[in-house]
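Hey, I was hoping to borrow your eyes for a little while. I've been puzzling over a protein and I'd love to understand its fold better. The fold is given in discrete form, as structure tokens running alongside the sequence. I'd be grateful if you could look everything over and explain what you see. No rush at all, and the record is pasted right below.
>
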Amino acid sequence: MQIKLYNLRKNQKHLTQKELAAMLGISTKSYRDKELGHQQFTQDEMFKISDIFNAKLEDIFLPRKYQTGTKNK
């Protein structure tokens, strides 16, 4: 889960998943899956999110829990 993103969305901007999904031009389900970590945000979506929250990409999306190739299967 993108805990930092969740906190920004709920506590800073008081946005619903539906509202933020609309800002990104994606479905609410797609946004929910991305916030939960089931799908990855595209680079364009990450840049747009950083603009919406006036925050650096790395402050929202890093560090990731798993880096490519480090998650045990």
